[in-house]
Amino acid sequence: MLEDSSIIDRPFADELSDRYLVYALSTITARSLPDVRDGLKPVHRRLLWAMRLLRLDPGSGFKKCARVVGDVIGKYHPHGDQAVYDAMVRLAQNFALRYPLVDGQGNFGNVDGDGAAAMRYTEARLTAAANALMAGLDQGTVDFRETYNGEDEEPEVFPGLFPNLLANGAAGIAVGMATSIPPHNIGEIVDAAKHLIRFPDAPTETLIRKVRGPDFPTGGVLAEDEATILRAYETGRGSLRVRARFYAADEADEARREAGIESLGGGQWQLVITDIPYQVQRSKLIEQIATLVTDRKLPILDDVRDESAEETRIVLVPKSRNVDPDILKESLYKLTDLESRFSLNLNVLDKDRTPRVMGLRDLLTAWLEFQFDMLRARTRHRLGKIDARLELLEGYLVAYLNLDRIIEIIRTEDEPKQVMMAEFSLNDRQAEAILNMRLRSLRRLEEMEIRQEDSELRSEREELSRLLESEDLQRERMKADLTELKKNFGDPRRTQIEAAAPTRDIPLEAMIEREPITVILSKRGWVRALKGHAELASLESQKFKEGDAFAQAFHAQTTDKLLVAADDGRFFTLGADKLPGGRGFGEPVRAMIDIDAEAGIRTMFVASAAEQVLLAATDGRGFLAETSELIAETRKGRQVMGFRPGAKLLDVVPVDPQHDHVASYGTNRRLLVFPLDQMPVLARGKGVMIQRFRESELAAITTLKLEEGLSWPMGGGSGRTRTETDLTVWLGSRGGTGRSPPTGFPRQAPYFPRISAEDE
User: Fold this and answer.
1) Which residues does UniProt call coiled coil (predicted)?
2) Is 57 helix (H, G, I), strand (E, B) or coil?
3) Phi, psi of 155 (to 5 degrees)
4) Of the candidates 212, 220, 588, 733, which lies 20 to 30 Å from 163 by C-alpha distance?
């Protein structure tokens, strides 16, 4: 059997590994990662180069994109035409690039996610930013290499001063690595670069005071603090939160305008979104919000409208004017792309074409090193041009000084070039230039212009020579060039930076429509809720069922949880929004909870009225309890307090945080005042002795601030209260028997004034 010389005998795993490595390196270096020097991938560089050769300058006319794409795939980039066109479209989108490099005419897509028209319909030319990026290509600054078929040449990198890598950012996925660089404000980049020129060892902490963070073309809000931004730019990796911006331009009140709250009159309002997060499609964002409305997953939002034209304007209509705007925003941040994360990964190819993750300082340093190289290269190139021109001018001056003899040689000699070179010590290039002079140039004025040009060029040459020899002059020249760049391309920052706490889960009750109500409880346990906060003193005159009467009333909000305490020590929870309206007599509380038939309703209060409550039984025992421990999740309630035989729950007193003493009063007409800290905090139980009785019971209890004294309502339904400020006589310890009350204290146990939710 004959051996085939084309067959390689090698282990398959080794061959596959080597070939995959070659493929991976090719993908990394020739497709996916940008170059730190010009911030471009090969496809973008080739697009701009092809457009330059087609003379599509900003001042020229447009050409069909199909023509550009054809040149690119035919001469420089042998890939699919659609992939090349998609790359070209992105360079023209002002919502994708902070400083577009292609000026497009026609449909190049929009922020709603609509695609561009076919390349045969659209036209394009270069922008001023692209020109600045390619400036110096014809000044011997960068090397050129052969194209893939060896027929043409293309630059390895663009030498212009425009900081495209940071200004426009980049994104790409390679084999085993990726890059994600956000756009930045060119004015801030220039300021940071100038600072780094002056202080080469400046830390990143100083630089981010210049480059404050990403500046996205779509604006928005960067919701991170300086420490998070610093950490990301120091390491080259991080994750940054970007939020939509709410702004109501026509709102007169500055605070509401900045919050995006647009007044509609009559207390009505709406939220206005003017900026959306980078790379979020506006149409899909609106669809997300609309889905929340239709699926009733956000009950505080009534409608969403897209009123966008050239600028974004998304209007959010709340369910009512009582909705909290901040809760609505937080909910939308959590449930939609109004808040998104941008992954920062500063992975680039360095000057040796090696992939590296760089921090902000390393990126700027590498770019500045390249720009100083380009400055020196341009200077050397210009010096070469000046020397060549001075050489010719020297020959011209010889010709004018010996004009008659030159003319005679040209007329009489068969080889005038050789004769002139021998007679006047001219070189070949000078002699050839003299022979090519036009007759109209042989005048005195031309000689004067040549002498002036010679003087100016020698002065420029001296200046450029000093520039090449002095690093200080090079730094000053670079700073001046950067200042000019900022003047030409600098603009205000679009993305605001506002540190914000992480988005939180908004409980469902917080999304319920928040309205003020007044809760009325009758002695037989019927409850109703009046709209608004009514005057409590006037509610005793409300109508009740025959044989029923007023028991208590308090202010609340429809979003509140209400705690119902039964005689048997059980606690039940009701939603304030579930209470019946104020018309009629209301409904019995028993219909809303599973309470024992023999148990009575003792009291009802707002759970948020106080963090602690004082529980007291008729036998004089009690304890402090955390309000959060009283909330029951079921209709059966929660057993909190136990009793001795014959005893039952007397009262539940919400504790004001400023109160420091307890006042208890028995049916034996004995009053006791003792420190609140003598009462233990328990989760459940019978508690401890508050006031000791022999044959009497506890009749009333409250908490107070000792220096303010004890207040109690006066009789006769006057609505007035009386206060005893000096309580020294009644001060004692918990478990004492107490003393006779002050003069004027009612014989029937008083219902002491209480704190309510609105007093919190």
Assistant:
1) 450-488
2) coil
3) -70, 145
4) 220
For residue 330, give the CATH number of its domain. Answer: 3.30.1360.40
Instruction: From 489, 516, 539, give the residue that closes a domain.
Output: 489
Do both 631 and 743 map to the same domain? yes
Residue 711 phi, psi (nearest 5): -115, 145
Read off φ and ψ for residue 114, nearest 5 degrees. -70, 140
Distances (CA, A) of 545 to 166, 523, 548: 76, 10, 5
List the one residue out of 221, 210, 208, 169 whose CA is nearest residue 187. 210
Q: Copy the structure tokens of residue 263.
A: 């007044």
758 pLDDT above the threshold of 50: no
> Which of the listed residues 440, 468, 489 is the one where a domain comes to its end?
489
Same domain, 325 and 383: no
Which of 172, 177, 175, 189 minimizes the C-alpha distance to 87? 172
Q: Is residue 541 part of a domain?
A: no
Residue with the two structure tokens 């300082």? 361
Which pTM does this prediction carry? Answer: 0.71
Token pair, residue 584, equals 């009629």
CA distance 207 to 359: 11
pLDDT value, residue 756: 46
**Co-location of 394 and 317 in the same domain:** no
Residues facing residue 702 across a β-bridge:
663
**Distance, CA of 454 to CA of 447 (rounded, Å):** 11
SS3 655: coil
Burial of 640 (0-12, 13-18, 19+ CB in 10 A): buried
- Asked if residue 180 and residue 321 are part of one domain, the reply reads no
CATH code of 423's domain? 1.10.268.10
The helix/strand/coil state of 460 is helix
Mark whether 589 and 709 lie in a shared domain: yes
Same domain? For 303 and 415 the reply is no
Q: Is the pLDDT of residue 757 over 60?
A: no
Summarize pLDDT for 273-326 with one digit per residue, the tens. 999 999 999 999 999 999 999 988 888 899 999 999 889 999 999 988 888 899
Q: pLDDT-based confidence at 512, cuts 50/70/90?
A: low
Whether 355 is covered by a domain: the verdict is no
Task: Return the H-helix or E-strand segment holding 165.
Answer: helix 164-168
Q: Is 121 a catalytic residue?
A: yes
pLDDT at position 504 is 74
Contact (CB, 8 A) for 316 and 260: no
Residue 463 has a pLDDT of 94
- DSSP class of 591: G
**Residues 618, 754 within the same domain:** yes
Q: Are residues 169 and 291 in the same domain?
A: no
- Tell me how many domains the chain contains: 4
Within 10 angstroms of residue 547's Cβ, the number of other Cβ atoms is 7
Catalytic residue of the set 121, 148, 233, 396: 121
User: Which tokens in the block code for residue 461?
Assistant: 């040459």
User: 234, 204 in Cβ contact below 8 A?
Assistant: yes
